[in-house]
């Protein structure tokens, strides 16, 4: 007994992919905002921990060797001098962080730097989105450093210099977001020059 099988053509709903394609820019924008908030949070954690290490190292140096102690001054033994040097270098970790941040931001301003970041991020990010992520990271570091500085002063019962701390915070954030404004302005000038050519 053979059964005849009837083949029906597949019905493809053309409406749904078109709707998904219409939502693609909105989803890409939400993904970019989510990525920026993650980058800012990572920057805040790194900034907090870096500032905590810096302040702790400075406190250890002041407690152990005195407030105005020089790394190359006389020590009891060579191990004491090496320990002093090591703690001093660890307490300067924030300078290394800022150096690498500025190298990364500067790299995001060149074509080769953008290509490198696109390769590292493994996606098809635009040059602006990469630069904005770098600035968001910098803003996060500034906020994290502020929170660490303020919380340590508060925890130790020290009078927190609120106005200088807040002014440094706002100055850092102003620099951060003015970099994005300058980047956009430069891209607009480049587009106008390309249109005239």
Structural features, described:
This protein has 197 residues and is an all-alpha fold. 79% of the residues lie in helices and 0% in strands. It contains 6 helices and no strands. The N and C termini lie far apart (77 Å).
Order of helices and strands: HHHHHH
Categorize the overall geometry.
elongated
Helix content class = over 70%
Low-confidence stretches: 7-22
- The class by helix and strand makeup works out as mainly alpha
Strand content: under 5%
* Count of helical stretches: 6
* Total number of beta strands: 0
What are its keywords?
single chain; 197 residues; 6 helices
Task: Briefly characterize the structure.
By secondary structure, the chain is mostly helical. The chain has helices at 15-65, 78-91, 93-107, 111-121, 127-155, 162-196.
Describe the protein's topology:
Layout: H1 15-65, H2 78-91, H3 93-107, H4 111-121, H5 127-155, H6 162-196
Helix pairs in contact: 1-2, 1-5, 5-6
């Amino acid at each position: 007994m053979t059964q005849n099988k009837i083949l029906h053509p597949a019905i493809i709903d053309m409406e749904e992919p078109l709707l998904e394609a219409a939502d693609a820019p909105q989803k890409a924008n939400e993904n970019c905002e989510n990525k920026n908030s993650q980058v800012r949070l990572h920057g805040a954690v790194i900034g907090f921990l870096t500032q905590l290490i810096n302040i702790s190292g400075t406190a250890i140096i002041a407690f152990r060797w005195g407030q105005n102690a020089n790394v190359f001054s006389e020590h009891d033994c060579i191990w004491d001098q090496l320990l002093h040097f090591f703690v001093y270098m660890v307490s300067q970790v924030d300078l290394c962080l800022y150096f690498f941040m500025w190298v990364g931001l500067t790299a995001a301003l060149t074509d080769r730097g953008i290509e490198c970041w696109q390769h590292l991020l493994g996606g098809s990010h635009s040059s602006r989105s990469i630069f904005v992520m770098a600035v968001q990271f910098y803003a996060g570091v500034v906020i994290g450093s502020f929170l660490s500085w303020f919380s340590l002063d508060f925890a130790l019962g020290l009078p927190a210099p609120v106005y200088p701390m807040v002014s440094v915070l706002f100055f850092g954030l102003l620099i951060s977001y003015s970099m994005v404004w300058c980047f956009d302005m430069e891209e607009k000038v480049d587009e106008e020059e390309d249109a005239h050519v």
